[in-house]
Amino acid sequence: MSARFFTSLFPWLPLGVMGLSLGYAFTVLTRFPWWTLFIVALAWMALGAALRWGRPRNARYRRVWPWSLLPLSLMGVYVYLADSFGIVDLAAIFFHLQAGIAEHGGAEKMVTAVLYTLTMLGILASVTWIARHDQRWRLGDRFFAIALLAGNPLLFGLGQRSAAIITDDGGWLDRRYVAPPDSELRNAPNLVLLYLESLERTYGDEQFGGVYDDLDALGERGIVFEGVKQIDNTGWTMAGMIASQCGVPLMPAGLMHDTQFEPLSEVVPGVDCLGDLLAAQGYRLSYLGGASTQFAGKGIFYRGHGFDSVKGRDEFEPMLDDPEYVNSWGINDDTLYDFTLDEIRRLNDEDDGPWVVANINLAGHSPHGFPSQTCMDEQGLFDGQDILYSVRCSAWEARRFVERLDDEGLLDNTIVVLLSDHLTMRVPVWDQLTQLERENTFIMLGDRFAPGRIQREASMVDVFPTLLEALGFKLDEHRAGLGASLFGERQTLIEAHGLPMVNERLREETALQHRLWEGVAPRRRSEATPHEQVNEIIGDTQADAATP
């Protein structure tokens, strides 16, 4: 009886597994609602029944291993990445593998990865069973495998990066790089740099129910920069930090790394960043983060670029009053801001020159966020799923922190900058976000600025020269790194060339990658003679055409 029941499940069981998986992949890669997966699954099974898949009239069994098993597995990897992050960023994958993913807080994603693995095993078993029982599938299997390989965006991206090695012009961006100045600052202001995890300006749209209101309220006190888009290689935390502090996208070392199987010992050592410049001016620099500084080379970057004090979860946990009051990534926002306030008090009391304090919170982290207990006391209970609850918490905690600084008189001759590290990754309101014109948060507060708004087509690399000019540096034609100061009239890369072209050039660029990793990556012979720097008005088509 049990054997007969087991036999009766075929071919409906493999067809059902394949149909449900195909339907789920369809909903992940499109904006269709989740329940359409059942429509896709039923349509697939109806087609299978009509064509008698797995039980043809002239069935001939052969013990074969389909060619499509590997391409199917690779497509499964792509769907998993798209489901987890929304946009599959190969550069982010390469960088995190090289810089290290220890001490991460993605326990939920690990569970999802296990479920995906089990599902993929079911799909592979189903395809194998049908191919063995249906000669039509065996005949079409190689064509199916080729189609899967050709249609996998993950492999297409790898092909583009490989083609960049032999491109005719791999230095278009590098020729536009402008080294930051080393001029001396006078009456140097302090700087508080608050990165708000994934808290993009797009959340200010009215359909999200006012979750951004606290940042809007802060913006009324200073300058709000509108139009800060996201170019490729700036869409994760370290990439956003490096873009805004160094003026360059984070092109990972990847296969350029001298010792391929060892973690990075330096992060973008070939360029001077905000910390390098300010340390040379006598600033004391501190970085505080809720997550571990071991994750993704964060500690290596900050220590290697001028920061004296670098602390994260590992340093803060022994100092907690309640060791259980943490989240899977690290320290909750209310605790982090308390530590940050103590650090600013310490630096201010020492009265030993200007200081910088940078921190990054966790509340808005995808997919659901990590709101603090202080927010729950303010907003009510958190259901564990609502990212908008967490976004509101992140904005409220940031406003509360700035107001605490103000109440204690710690904002004299101090610039406060609030910015999202990158656009959010896949969250429950992903479909709504991706239908809007998405922008990063960039707000600057300080006595030296009259409140207002600056609307520019820009990216995170333009934050770097804007910060330098706000601090008092004199920039050559308002440029530093690949960016143009949003206080000046110089065109940004996006204003001059458009976002699609900048991203296309990034995919072809190799010279800038070598510049970033100078000393870590071997130098090519063709780079023995440095490129001539392009000193042009970026939007000037004549000058652009003359670029070598």
Automatic annotation (TrEMBL):
Subcellular location as annotated: Cell membrane
Membrane topology recorded in Swiss-Prot or TrEMBL: Multi-pass membrane protein
Keywords: Cell membrane, Membrane, Transmembrane, Transmembrane helix
PANTHER family given in the database record: LIPOTEICHOIC ACID SYNTHASE, PHOSPHOGLYCEROL TRANSFERASE I
Native organism taxonomy: Bacteria, Pseudomonadati, Pseudomonadota, Gammaproteobacteria, Oceanospirillales
Top-level lineage group: Bacteria
Protein name, as recorded: Sulfatase-like hydrolase/transferase
Matches recorded under Pfam families: Sulfatase
